[in-house]
Description:
The chain is an alpha+beta fold and 626 residues long.
Amino acid sequence: MDIRDTVDLSWDEFDELRDPRPAENDFDRVVERAMSRRGFLGAVLAFGSGAAVFGSGLMSSTTAARAQAGSFKFAPIGIATDHEIHVPEGYRWKPLVKWGQALFSEAEGAYSAETGVPVEMSDKVFGENTDGMETFEADGHVLLAINSEYVNPKINLPADSEGMPKNAGEVAMLKNMQGVTVLEIAPQGESWEVVIDSPYNRRITHETQMVMDGPAAGSDLVRTNADPEGMNPKGTMNNCGSGKTLWGTYLTCEENFNGYFGTTGEMPQNEGIKRYGIGAEGRYAYEKFDARYDLSKEPNEPHRHGFVTEIDPADPDSTPVKHTALGRFKHENAEMVQAADGRIVVYMGDDERGEFMYRYVSNGTWAEGQPTDGLLSDGTLYVAKFNDDQTGEWLALTPETTGMALEEILVFSRMAGSKVGATTMDRPEWIAANPLKPEAYCALTNNKNRGLKPNAGGDETPVGGPNPREANNYGQIVRWQPAGGDHGADTFAWDLFVMAGNPEAGEGAYKGSENVTAGNMFNSPDGMAFSSDGMLWIQTDGDDSNEGEFAGMGNNQMLVGNPETGEIARFLTAPNGAEVTGLTWSPDGKTAFVGIQHPGGAWPDGAGKPRSAVIQVWREDGDVIG
Ligand code: FEO
Ligand code: CA
Ligand code: CA
């Protein structure tokens, strides 16, 4: 494969092309699974109201009418296929910050619609491909911490590069356009704007100096030539979803870190190479220009990425901390809640076909005003096991349960999960916890391999449980309620909040659940967050062709779900080509900040290059949004 052919692929497509899974060839087993799937669909029962119900074709008219008149403060909108943003009547939007926009006055005017940003200004502007983000307040200032997940080299590099860097300067440009941005915003009229030169403004990139903590820090697995102590890694990469600690710091989640490494010589031989999809050619050819990314020179460097990293936005001089105790995998986001006894609980998904859902529980407890030392470095990592009877349990990953040393469990968490028999999932993306009751939701975005191919560790991916659809192209949202209403409990009950589908064109499970209608169809749920009123906001990253089995779904979108009634209504549609990812609110709740990643066309400027951007959405009547 010529790496140059991959620059237009999504990360997921890139991984699949580079490391295809063996096809399942046991035809009888596939058929058997399809049969058990039908049995499961007939048996789904809700444990609460508002659950997905798999009914006959007579589902769309009544539920659609309920969504129109239901519990939402807005009139749901239709699909779109254009290159614009659409929001409901009575709402307005405009960009807050776009790729290449100056954070400091020295970079003002640096962005050009024809050539982008010069390399010397690339760490003084907003990065590309916005993703997870959170809002903070510090001494009366309002701050946003925002992930820039990856770069599109074709629009960042000179045209003659053909999408691959030719020299160290171009590598530096790509590195600088990714990572995390902290920026201050201030009210301006009815909306917000970036405060140029705020002392809080900061870029954190692939080169920023960090520290590691937790049981794997300093272990042989994470030592390199450049950092023989294994305590001081550089950089955070492929920053996907986010989280906010209860004590007001930012959690950035390192997802497809595997694609940044390659080799100019021999490939290292260790179990993690295959399971984590690390290949001989890095997506951006960093290994040709920087030994840190060259596996023949630094075989342990990939072991220092794929973590949840904590950043204090209120202190621009703070050193980010990589928390090994929360495990190493393709972290989507990190949703923090608290157990009844005060321990810290973090829910996390590993976004890969057939990988697992995780929970971390601290040993120590916390209350407002108390020290936070050790809360994210001293605890236990668990994986989820879902049973077909709608119960489930968290399985502890310990030396006793896995036969692995603790540092191996944390660096090779996927292998530890396999050892205890965790449930292989349909690509766990964001997890969101309901602020009004003890329950949490995980977007299982899609999994074309479900029931057909094992995961990279050879674990089977049978149809069943919360992954009930073979060759699942639409996705679903699972939710669970911990036993006794305590997120610290080791057992839970689960159901499906929604199975995306096409009630008009789909057959059987492909119709979707009863709360999917002709008026709210979507595929591939991904980003999720709860507003303070207990509504679940759902963002999509799926097929926006509006053709074939995706006809009637239009561009990627943001919907709102009511956990109590199960109703789902479309709130926003993105420009064609974009996914919607990242959502946070202003402190007064009157503005929603929404990420628009990899737009097509020339959005939002109308000419020149497409620019990923965070937009702001507010109500014309000035009320809180939602
Ligand atoms: Fe970066 Fe799984 O989304
Ligand atoms: Ca995502
Ligand atoms: Ca996705």
